[in-house]
Amino acid sequence: MSTDILFLAEFADGAPARSAIELATGAAELASQSGGVAVALAYGSGAASGAASLGAHGAARAIVLGDEDRPAITYAPAAVASARDGGLALLAPATPNGRDLAAALVGLLDLPAFGPVRTAGVTDGVLETEQATLQGSVITTSRPVDGAPTPAVVLVLANTFTPAEGGSGTAEVAEAPGADDSALSKASVVESHEAEAKVVNLEEASVIVAGGRGVAGEAGFGPLRELAAELGGAVGASRAAADAGWIAYQLQIGQTGKVVKPSLYIGAGISGAIQHRVGMQTAEHVVAINKDPDAPIGEFADLFVVGDLFQIVPALTEEIRRRKGA
Known about the structure:
Mean pLDDT: 89
Shape: elongated
Structural class: alpha/beta
Low-confidence stretches: none
Number of domains: 2
Largest sheet: 8 strands, mixed
CATH architecture of the largest domain: 3-Layer(aba) Sandwich
Radius of gyration: 21 Å
CATH class of the largest domain: Alpha Beta
């Protein structure tokens, strides 16, 4: 059985997506434990010319599934053909495109699947993954059963692996083997539109200012946006705020939303229920602002400010402006 670690690497506009760089690093880490190498399955606009650059982030080889700007699912036949030779695991990003391709691989090759996972490792040649269950209250460790087909497909949450930077390696590039024609290869885009930059960058933001039920309405996000702008960050929200229609669902953080890992996370008017916590608990520093001194977020915040966010947030914004201008 091959001990290589495969990963899906999406390209757009000539450059690898952040998920591709994260998984290159993660695959290299797992490959060092399994005794194999990291192998990219690269697809999308710029994949042919850019696949070799994944070597700087840990990939030893790259198989180019295709180099066109078309729906990710159309690359499923080529991905299936490339994965048939096996490997210990195939990492897929928990993004819309990653989920589509992962599902196709699982269904067409009858592979075991795990995730979305927060941790993965190889112990004595066996893949082990950890994922949250029961709304994040239980952490489950899973591994493929003996004799299960390979590679096991592992859906990986954003920010699970920290991208390796400053490398100079170059991945060996090859084209995908011939793939069977199927209905999947004929999928097309009916309609598309650009997302707001703030939505696109939420998972990559180093600073996030998030609002919850306590902002009391759409207008309540105004002060949070001003603070985020002064800090050079992005605005996020809890599910309660998104469900209320106060902010776009694309900015929701939590179990059913985005998973983020900023250097600084400021939660204003957010209680900190476990469903929200699983989406931001890996933030380096957490500051909470809430009128309720018993709010759950206070249990894991580095700094818990008890008070009215509509007084505290503007005052904080003004102080930052004053210090920036000093």
